[in-house]
Amino acid sequence: MTHAAKGKEDSKEAAQAAAKPKGKRGRVVISKDKCKGCKWCVEHCPKGVLETGAEFNAKAYHYPRVKAGMEDACIACGMCELICPDFAIYVVEEGGKNDA
């Protein structure tokens, strides 16, 4: 590998690392059939990770989903699960503060 190619590869890796959120991260899990479509989780997510989906659940409510491209933006604050009156959403922590 040439010096220039190695430099480009290093720059690419640095850009990818910078794009990753630092600190805690989480994966949002939605129990769509428990959801009654109140949208509180969508309204109270501090990072704007959630949106109301177009699909209906078994109760004919629109349930939330993670916005496209925002899969890694959850900071695992747990606000969505705290605010949900139906326990239809929770967060699984996937990273620690020491992750790069």
SSE layout:
Blueprint: H1 3-19, E1 25-30, H2 40-44, E2 50-56, E3 62-66, H3 79-83, E4 89-95
Antiparallel strand pairs: 1-4, 2-3
List keywords for this structure.
100 residues, alpha+beta, Alpha-Beta Plaits, two-stranded antiparallel ribbon, two-stranded antiparallel sheet
Task: Outline the structure in words.
- This protein is α+β, with helices and mostly antiparallel strands and 100 residues long.
- Helices cover 27% and strands 25% of the residues.
- The protein has one domain (23-95): Alpha-Beta Plaits.
- The chain contains three helices and four strands, in the order H-E-H-E-E-H-E.
- It is elongated, with a radius of gyration of 18 Å.
- The protein starts with a helix and ends in a 5-residue tail after the last strand.
How is this structure best summarized?
By secondary structure, the protein is of the alpha+beta class. It has a single domain (23-95), classed as Alpha-Beta Plaits (2-Layer Sandwich).
Counted by DSSP, the helix tally is 3
Question: Biggest β-sheet, characterized?
Answer: 2 strands, antiparallel
- How would you write the strand order of the largest sheet? 1-4
In round numbers, the mean pLDDT is: 85
Class by helix and strand content?
Answer: alpha+beta
Rg result: 18 Å
Share in helix: 25-40%
CATH level 3 topology: Alpha-Beta Plaits
Residue share in β-strands: 25-35%
